[in-house]
Amino acid sequence: MHDTRSDPNSLSSDAEFTLQVRQALLSAKHTIPKVAVLLFALDNDGNALVPHSESSRGVHNSVSMRLRSALRDSDTVAVLSSGQVGVLLQSVSGAQELEHVINRLLLCLAEPIPLADRSLVITPRIGAALAPEHGESVHDLLEHAQKDLAKAKTAIQPYSIHLSPTQNLVSSRQWMGELRQAIVSDQLFLTYQPKVNLRHQEVTGLEVLVRWQHPKHGIVVPDHFIPFAERTGLIIPMTLWVLQQSLLQCRAWHDLGLDVSIAVNLSMWNLETQELPGQIAALLRDTGVSPENLELEITESSIMSDPQRVIRTLSQIRSLGVRFAIDDFGTGYSSFAYLTKLPVSCIKIDKSFILNIDTDRDSSVIVRSIIDLGHNLGLKVVAEGVENARANEILQGFQCDEGQGYHFCCPVVAEAMTEFLSAPPSAVTEQTSKKNENWQPLDPAH
Ligand code: G
Ligand code: G
Ligand code: MN
User: Fold this and answer.
1) In CATH, what number does 10-160 get?
2) Which ligand is nearest to the CA of 302?
């Protein structure tokens, strides 16, 4: 096997990788050490890279080189046509050593990857399988690794090693304990991202986005633990924690003379609990934040489970003076009829329509129509995923009310947000565009 350390372009192709796995399986039959196959999906903060783009090529090159330098010469690194990166380990003693190697590889990918115009932090997910216990054919081994990669994409831990069902049960129980512990022992922390009035380019509110500082796995983004929190019911105490902490922070900003509102995301499970309106009322009372300064973001799908009941809960909370926004608008199977029946005051257009608004005609037509629909129903319209000045201008032209996105500011921790909010308005654009140019990872999750 050739050493590709200095030349990432000579890495194995799909066919070569498969061949090498086959050869390794053949020779491993006669020896004790095992062979492992790892598949890496390279995401940027939970989002897949754009295939075949310049940035994905740059990321693949750097990742391959870093992986190469952390592996033995006899191991193989391949950039596969799917965009995944495949790694073949020729000799591991078992799952424990495999886990060790995976953690070492994750560590060497933790540093941001410098590209031509910015640097990118990737959040890799890994699926892995071991031979002979998880299969003796190339096909079985790759299939198991692929399935585990899919599992890792929605799990807390960034990697998944193929396991028997009983082992899986144990690890799920263990994760439940860890997340429960995280909620009570301050491993969760909050980041805040501003929403900006597009006409005046002024901050109007802050969306609260939770993160988990895991003692072993580093920062875990919500896409990786909220589905788990929902499955296990931990979403209920987690949301209450988020509400309480962000209201306390909001109060602290008010005490500093910074007049801000916050927006907290709710999951559909939150809306199923009868206690929610009472809990919100108590939290507002305890923190002394006025209800007008709290907005709750809900998704269309969370309403559809039991519309009558959800509408009742929403109305109770609305009567406290708290407002609602429909999040990720345009991605669910919206029933416009419900839009008129719900006590909502705002819709947030999903970022998937905004990210390519400057190049894709369909997206821009959809965005313009949603803005008109919202306005005709008397709703405020916010665009998410405003990443550049062009999108900002187009949305201004469409009379969109507010924007949110990296162009203005990444999600950042409270201290950085205080600084951002304290800057005189004229400096806000300057400061944010500088931030944007450098892709400043003020948010530890980036
Ligand atoms: O911050 P961003 O990367 O990665 O968030 C990813 C997803 O997680 C978004 O859909 C966001 O709505 C959701 N999310 C972030 N914080 C919370 C939270 O406190 N509660 C709930 N239910 N969802 C959240
Ligand atoms: O709750 P919601 O699904 O709206 O969460 C917003 C998500 O969008 C968070 O994960 C946040 O980190 C992410 N985000 C915020 N601004 C941008 C942006 O400009 N571009 C992209 N791609 N994502 C963004
Ligand atoms: Mn949201």
Assistant:
1) 3.30.70.270
2) 1
